[in-house]
Write a structure and sequence with these properties.
Layout: E1 7-13, E2 20-23, E3 29-32, H1 41-54, E4 62-65, E5 71-75
Parallel strand pairs: 1-3
Antiparallel strand pairs: 1-5, 2-3, 4-5
Length: about 80
């Protein structure tokens, strides 16, 4: 197993119609979540969706920057 960490810039769209992860042509990762951005619900939903999309455990994903922002930096 490789122990190297990767960081990604992501853009979160809270209160979206559907949950989903998309990657734009320019490499921007967008996470659409139906959760509202209150009490950390959207952040928890983002971590859950990213873990499923990239097939990694939820515990291996952390939000480094942007806890209260739509633009976040995450690390696997």
């Amino acid at each position: 197993m490789n122990d190297s960490k990767q960081t990604f810039n992501i853009r979160v769209i809270p209160r979206a119609r559907k949950n989903g992860v998309t990657i734009d042509a320019d490499g921007t990762v967008r996470v659409h979540t139906t959760a509202a951005p209150s009490d950390g619900a959207a952040n928890a939903a983002v971590i859950k969706m990213l873990a499923k999309h990239f097939d990694v455990p939820k515990s291996s994903i952390e939000i480094i920057r942007g806890q209260t922002s739509r633009d976040k930096v995450i690390r696997f």
